[in-house]
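Researcher: I'd like a candidate sequence for this fold, 215 residues long. If you have to choose between options at a position, lean toward the conservative one.
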């Protein structure tokens, strides 16, 4: 059976010259990977992190690895690909989703929220240096364990005041909170430790180093 579905690309793994395994998030199946057969000279531009695409999914009752084909771009996401700072945030977001959302997990509303988040970041013209912090807090809520300041206090240390400010701010206010690069980095690590604790996984996010350098 073949179904057309919209997918968010989290990344891909090359298994041979003519095939990759694409890791995705979808409304229908949550976090799931698909095998994609590539034609000669095929471009991998369609599979950039957090790309929103549509594809034909062929289910296979004999295998957990279904086939995806006939990819088309649902949104161009031009600023995410051309802005160095946004691109760094995109790499961070995709890595967190890949590591925090378990294969097969299909939290209700998670896909729709992710798509809105991606389109929001793409549309922002300025003042998005705190975006990934707000996004991490929203992600915890979408995964079912939205924190209060008290929940975060054991992880926050000296940054509890900043944590409270982010929790109590509307989106527009959160983007404008005056945070130094050091404070922003520490807050990011606090939220990742909280997320690691609740997902019972070690979220070693390599792209965090790039965010530290840029923000």
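Model: Candidate sequence:
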């Amino acid at each position: 059976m073949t179904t057309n579905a919209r997918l968010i690309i989290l990344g891909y793994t090359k298994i041979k010259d003519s095939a990759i395994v694409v890791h995705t998030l979808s409304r229908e199946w949550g976090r799931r990977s698909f095998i994609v057969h590539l034609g000669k000279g095929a471009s991998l531009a369609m599979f950039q992190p957090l790309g929103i695409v549509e594809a034909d999914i062929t289910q296979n009752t004999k295998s957990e690895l279904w086939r995806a084909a006939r990819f088309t771009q649902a949104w161009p996401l031009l600023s995410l690909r051309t802005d160095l700072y946004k691109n760094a945030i995109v790499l961070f977001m995709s890595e967190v989703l890949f590591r925090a959302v378990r294969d097969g997990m299909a939290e209700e509303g998670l896909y729709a929220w992710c798509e809105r988040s991606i389109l929001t970041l793409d549309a922002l013209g300025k003042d998005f240096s705190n975006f990934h912090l707000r996004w991490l807090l929203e992600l915890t809520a979408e995964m079912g364990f939205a924190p209060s300041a008290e929940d975060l206090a054991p992880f926050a240390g000296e940054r509890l005041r900043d944590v409270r400010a982010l929790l109590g701010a509307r989106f527009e206010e959160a983007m404008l909170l005056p945070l130094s690069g050091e404070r922003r980095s520490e807050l990011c690590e606090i939220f990742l430790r909280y997320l690691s604790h609740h997902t019972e996984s070690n979220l070693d996010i390599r792209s965090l180093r790039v965010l530290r350098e840029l923000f």
